[in-house]
Amino acid sequence: MTALDGLFEALDRRIPRDLREIVDTVSPTVNALGYDKWGFSTAAAKRTLYVATWFYRHYFRVEVHGIDRVPPGRGLLIGNHSSQLAYDGMMVATAMMLDAHPPRAVKAMIEKVFQRMPLVNVWMTRSGQVTGLPENCERLLADDELLMVFPEGARGSGKLWKDRYKLLDFGTGFVRLAMKMRAPITPFAFVGGEEACPAIFDIKPLARALSIPYFPITPTLLPLPLPARCSIWFGEPMWFEGTGNEEDAEVMPKVEAVKARIAELLDEGRAARKSLYL
To answer: What is the DSSP letter of 124?
Structure first.
């Protein structure tokens, strides 16, 4: 047995039964070895959920509003991006596991850069994340999966403190996908990510040298999170008719409608919070 095997075995013994049952409930398509066709592993998902639950309940102390608005079946969760290292995506996926009834598994669409990072790429695949290619999204929605997409991409997660909560331009891809696959879009706002991991400066030359989107300098020097209180605000699902092949002029108003709703949810969430860290 290697040291890593020993670590996993010790971790597995600590995972509560209720978390194990949640992962088993949302993983009906795995094979006898506990893997699905995308590389998702129930064993890895249980370990990830165990760690994420601690951050969710005790570190970020996440509050969730309107999670019952997420409709069953295929769909897209579309929200603002923040927090440098996708702590926001991890918390939204954890919310769908812990606070949705019944619990839901979320396939997060991740940047291609993560597939080039040793160990990180394996962990993300094993815990259910998928590279955000259009063909992957279509196949997942055809299987009635719930996808999470951040239209701002890496530009959003790498925002500097001075640009916190400013929504960057959204592309049209997610709306075209929703129309083509007849999938509802549930907008959401993640509040607290900007305070959890505020970036003061981005060392762009170093980021280019390392082939990563950005290299932020934070109060902890590295993108390690502060214990900011976070909240997630879900809006009503939005449905759009069409084939997905329409001209940009026809699709952009729909994109802007989703973006405007996320901005409203952000304002609502920021107005409701009583403290940042206490």
So the answer is: H
Residue closest to 188 by CA, chosen among 242, 140, 237: 237
202-222: pLDDT as tens digits: 888 988 888 888 888 888 877
Q: How far is CA 212 from the centre of its chain?
A: 19
Q: Kindly provide the residue ranges of all beta strands, DSSP E only, lying in 181-236, ordered along the sequence.
A: 185-191, 201-202, 216-217, 231-234
β-sheet bridge partners, residue 202: 216
Q: Nearest to residue 167, comparing CAs of 188, 195, 197?
A: 188
Q: How many CB atoms are located within 10 Å of the residue 10 CB?
A: 9
pLDDT, tens digit (0-9, with 9 covering 90-100), for 84-142 = 888 999 999 999 999 999 999 999 998 777 777 777 788 888 998 898 899 999 999 99
Interval 145-159: pLDDT, tens: 999 999 998 888 889
Q: Is 243 exposed, middle or buried (0-12, 13-18, 19+ CB in 10 A)?
A: exposed
Is there a cis peptide before residue 253, judged by omega within 30 degrees of 0? no
Residue type, position 237, single letter: P
How big is the CA angle at 206 (ends 201 and 210), to the nearest 5 degrees?
Answer: 130
